[in-house]
Write the structure tokens for this entry.
Amino acid sequence: MDAPGPPRPGPRRTLTEQDLLDAAFRLLDRGGPRALSVRALASEVGLTPNAVYTYFPTKDALVAAVTDTLLGRAPVAVLTDAGRPWRDRVIAFALGLRSLLLDHPGTVPLLLASGFRGPHALAVGEGLLAALGDGGLVPDDAARASYALTTHLLGTVALDVAEPDPAEPDGTGSRGTGAARDEEARAARRTRELRALPADAAPRTVAAAAAVGAYNTTTQYRWGLERLLDGVCGDAASDS
Amino acid sequence: MDAPGPPRPGPRRTLTEQDLLDAAFRLLDRGGPRALSVRALASEVGLTPNAVYTYFPTKDALVAAVTDTLLGRAPVAVLTDAGRPWRDRVIAFALGLRSLLLDHPGTVPLLLASGFRGPHALAVGEGLLAALGDGGLVPDDAARASYALTTHLLGTVALDVAEPDPAEPDGTGSRGTGAARDEEARAARRTRELRALPADAAPRTVAAAAAVGAYNTTTQYRWGLERLLDGVCGDAASDS
DNA sequence: AGATAATTCTGCACACCGTACAGAGAGCGC
DNA sequence: GCGCTCTCTGTACGGTGTGCAGAATTATCT
């Protein structure tokens, strides 16, 4: 994708930027956001810490590259998949991007901190605008809807990732990507905890314990998504 | 509010927890999230760093106390203000909480990291459930809507705070709370930047440059809020 | 009353963090 | 060949959270 650039003087690098990014994902997936340090990354790829600075000028730049690389794996293709209703495309994309992020929970805090500013984030925005345009929205409303979808997604994954992991409550920020992320079991446990709350502390929350316990589930996310799209498509969508 | 507790042996403390929390807010407002370190806090209140650990067992606990304290200032009263339409109440509350968080942007990354788990977060949830219940939603739908509103809010403030501050681009994470946060000026500048983008990079984004530039504005937030509430109130709100 | 135990706070220490700086070696253009 | 530029190493600085030992203070028990 990127041009390899003209041959420059100096010794050839022993690694590519992509090697470092792969190693960064390995560290993040293994130990959460705190595990991505310049020193750990260097040792993971067999370099001296300062050698990393010949690949990325600063740690923030490294983090930005990591998050944008991840966004580059977003299933933007489904957004422009003609012959499929536009709303299906948006929902499929949103669900896909959500699972992508939750498959790498360690990256989520980094994404929230570095924003949605890279080239691949722009591509995501373009795709959403295309699909929403197909839905008949004028460009400005499509943009507003695109942003609402984005904030809904980011808020959702932020709260999901912030949920403490009962398996290893030592606060390392790590999180299993396999069986430990069984949504139903998590929801059931949360619901049980809610029902055990002191009686008068939060009566309405306890009364809706099943739905509250299921906050961080695909079902809840999809529900919000559908309601948002309902509102966007409604006839009241142009009062701004 | 909290019981002062029975008198315990040992010397009296020279400060209250609230003193430390106030100092923490001072540091956060002055220098952003990175400015809140145990050592900086200790020096701000005139203590040794380790003395802080007699007030909070760990830095994470301190951060949790900070974020929940902030949530305790959320305008929950408006949610149960009878004699005002429920929808108005929800919107007023959401706008109020958003400005509260944006008035202390340094706390937002901490809130995202520590989740929405404290007692005051629970109170916010209760208030939302009450107002949404007044809107005629069954408890489970009220809960789902409450969560959707929360994620929308958190995603919004997350992206807002992540926006780099052009005034001091040195990445300290600080942010002016006064004139530097003039929404219209910021939106205009963003729109200008978008229009200067390479022609074929993101045509749809450029075509909607005015709306995209206005992403981090109250207007955009309110638009998403209204659309979400439209969808929640619609007749299609019970397909789950 | 005095002894005991609990608590606050100090000082030192450790391991880790991002990264600035100086220098060695490698590879290209002249 | 020379010289420039780039990659990578080593050392170092100031910062981080926090564990541990000890002094001082106070409430409780005998």
